[in-house]
Amino acid sequence: MMKSINNRRFSRVGILWAVHLEFYANKYKNFVNNVSLSGLFVEGEFDQIIGDLCIINLKQSALYNKNIIRAVGSVSRVTEDGIALEFLSMRLDSFSFLQTTMLCKAVHPAEVSREFIMHDFLKLDGDVIYFFPHYLDRKEVKELSDIL
């Protein structure tokens, strides 16, 4: 039997959170089943295309109003089942919460902790972390990051 190869950049961690997505023209409320250091996949029907920017508001439950993680994201994949969102930026407190939660919920926490050590893809600008430094140069990403 051939062993499947995982081509993912980062490990997925199973977490059930409510998600509110704010695109320029559309807003959506749904749930996320898992998250990785680079982003998440949201099941459902969306009128969005690859490259669309949004504010991602993750909440511990649909009834709880406080955001636990607030980030700027970009649609990286569109399927019949939903959309994949790549994190572009988030405030340091959101990133710290993401790290802590992923370590606590991970099946293999040592593997996830190694991924956090790979800081070559992160850039800190004030109290905002940019996941891939070239996003810091995009005006619209910077403007959205300023309202986090």
From TrEMBL:
<dbReference type="GO" id="GO:0035438">
    <property type="term" value="F:cyclic-di-GMP binding"/>
</dbReference>
<protein>
    <recommendedName>
        <fullName>PilZ domain-containing protein</fullName>
    </recommendedName>
</protein>
<dbReference type="InterPro" id="IPR009875">
    <property type="entry name" value="PilZ_domain"/>
</dbReference>
<feature type="domain" description="PilZ">
    <location>
        <begin position="7"/>
        <end position="96"/>
    </location>
</feature>
<dbReference type="Pfam" id="PF07238">
    <property type="entry name" value="PilZ"/>
</dbReference>
